[in-house]
Each structure stands twice: as C-alpha cells, then as structure tokens.
Design goal:
Blueprint lengths: L1 H27 L6 H26 L7 H21 L3 H24 L7
Amino acid sequence: MTLWMLRIVLLLHAGLVIAQPVLAGYFLSGEADAIDLHGPIGSTLWVVAMLQFVVAVLYWRPGHGRLWPALVTILLFLAEMAQMVFGYLQNFVVHVPLGTAIVVTVAAMTVWSFRHRPEVVR
C-alpha cells in the first residue's frame, strides 16, 4: 500500500518537474506567458518534496520498504529550495544544471518505483 502511495506522489512530482524545462523552453522561444506557470510551479515543488518525504518514510518504516527513497527525497527538497533561489536570482549557470539533475533524479525514482517488486513480509 505504501509503495503505491509513493508511486502516486512520485508521478505528481515527476509531472511537475518535467513541465519546468518545457515551460522554460516555451518562454525562451518567445511565449512570455509560459513564465507565469514556470515560477509558481517551481515555488511549490518543495511542498511536493515534503509530501514525498512523508510518504517515503511511511514506505520505509511501517511499510518495510527501503530507506534510500526518503534520504534522496531530503536531497531533492534541498536542491529544489536552492533551485527556487537561483531561479529568482536569475543565476542560470546554476539553475539549469541543477534543474537537469532534479528532473533526472525524480524521473529515475519514478521509474524505479514502478519496476520495484517488494518482498513479502511475514
């Protein structure tokens, strides 16, 4: 049950982080309104990371799952907070590669969550 909860939160997180470079690309290609979505989504991703952390801890402890998703989520939370700051400062030298790392990490976690087969606990 907790693995399914983690999968759902990861799908939400992945959808939002994957939308970010798409919206940035639209903005850079001349669609000025795209930044009106990019900013607010980026400003709320840390809330999704906090929710993901709670679910990852539930997956680990009562759910008898693995610890690493909770630990990686802490790093994602910190990275997304830094990402938000560097975005508002328009420091794209850090913002772009950090965003790439966030997208890759969340996407990899999401793929793992659907490929993972939990062991049966007796």
